[in-house]
Write a structure and sequence with these properties.
With 372 residues, the chain is α/β, with parallel strands linked by helices. The protein has helices at residues 62-77, 85-95, 97-103, 106-128, 132-135, 155-164, 178-192, 208-218, 236-246, 259-267, 283-296, 309-322, 336-339, 363-371, and strands spanning 6-25, 30-43, 48-53, 81-82, 142-150, 170-173, 198-201, 225-227, 250-252, 273-274, 300-301, 328-331, 350-352.
Length: 372
């Protein structure tokens, strides 16, 4: 058996919820609580690893995804030997391809596979006694981050609080009222100063026509990028028109659902920032290769994440492991399922990863969740 081969002996899943005093608002919905699905794996050598399954929407979807891991993934992979983590991802993606068609649920199934993939990567790095970023070949533990999830209400006060925490880059949610969007963006630009990175995220909230008007207006605040100005299934020709008409960088990828979409974005001239979410589609196994190709193509590699602490840790280790460009997203909203599991010291807009094995998350807190 090679150093990367493994045979899983057990898979555990837990669904957790954290209170959300200030709801997180997007152009398509509101999060009134913070859910998380954590996955724990153990191989026949006794090594363990932890993963996370994306489950923000719909608000009742977390138990369903957890059952996919328990009922559909676990019976297929426990006691089966794999050469490495990507082999497990490929096997499950193929093995469940008919179920995806039968159920019409490509998203939840891909998310479940992604969470298991992350857990295996963590397990393999722990087994090797290395932090995941170094296990992946990284040489630099210093990870630049940006604070995201800034709501349209109270944006300036939220931004000031995030800067006080050590952040230097902010991302504002837009796609609501045009005047309010512009006022919030101007307030944050004034707060940051002219040279710091201010990003905007419309969460697919505009039509192409509305996006064209909005981008031209918002260009006045010099956004570093505008994320998902239109629906991700909008033809690339429309994205290209918006990109070149406004002169602004466009970002996307968190809602791409297959490799072809990433291939098109990397090869094309309409998307500047590539943002896979390792807990939503592809896990680290696919995101690693996507980022390496995007980096070679001159694109910014910026992992998307808006979940718990395992997801955040995985995104930072992935970025450091491939020597990323751009920044890693860090949710600016309070979330005990992130902060307690992956406490981060932010200094000068960056986090420095430790040499702790694997993801370096608080496994005692995680194990306590699985014990309940």
């Amino acid at each position: 058996m090679t150093d990367t081969a493994f045979t899983l002996e057990a898979i555990d899943v837990t669904v957790q919820y954290a209170p959300c005093e200030v709801p997180v608002k997007t152009s398509f919905g509101v999060m009134t609580h913070r859910p998380a699905i954590f996955v724990r794996v153990r191989d026949t050598s006794g090594a363990t690893g932890y993963g996370e399954v994306w489950c923000n929407f719909p608000k009742f979807g977390a138990p369903h995804r957890a059952q996919i891991v328990t009922q559909d993934l676990s019976p297929r992979v426990v006691n089966r030997t794999f050469d490495d983590a990507p082999a497990l991802w490929r096997y499950l993606t193929e093995a469940l391809s008919v179920l995806v068609l039968q159920t019409g649920e490509p998203g939840p199934i891909a998310q479940a596979i992604s969470g298991l993939d992350l857990a295996v990567w963590d397990m393999l790095a722990r087994r090797a006694g290395q932090p995941l970023w170094r296990y992946m070949g990284g040489t630099e533990a210093h990870v630049p981050v940006y604070a995201s999830g800034i709501n349209p209400s109270g944006a300036e006060a939220t931004g000031a609080g995030l800067l006080a925490q050590g952040h230097r880059r902010l991302k504002l949610k837009v796609g609501f009222d045009a005047q309010a969007d512009l006022a919030n963006a101007r307030a944050l630009r004034a707060l940051l100063g002219p040279d710091a990175e201010l990003m905007l995220d419309a969460n697919q909230g505009w039509t192409v026509e509305a996006a064209d008007h909005a981008l031209r207006d918002l260009a006045a605040v010099a956004p570093y990028w505008v994320e998902e100005p239109v629906r991700v299934d909008t033809p690339p020709t429309a994205w290209r028109t918006l990109r070149h008409g406004s002169g602004l960088r466009l970002a996307g990828g968190e809602n791409f659902s297959d490799l072809r979409m990433f291939d098109d974005a990397i090869a094309g001239d309409w998307l500047d920032v590539i943002q896979p979410d390792i807990c939503k589609w592809g896990g680290i196994s696919q995101a690693r290769d996507i980022f390496l190709r995007a980096k070679a193509a001159g694109k910014l590699t910026c992992p998307h994440t808006l979940g718990g602490g395992v997801a955040l840790a995985g995104s930072m280790h992935l970025w450091a492991g491939i020597g990323g460009t751009g920044f890693v997203e860090m949710d600016g909203n309070d979330n005990a399922l992130r902060e307690d599991i992956c406490p981060c010291r932010i200094e000068g807009g960056a986090v420095t990863l430790t040499d702790a094995p694997g993801l370096g998350v608080d496994t005692d807190r995680l194990d306590a969740m699985f014990a309940k």
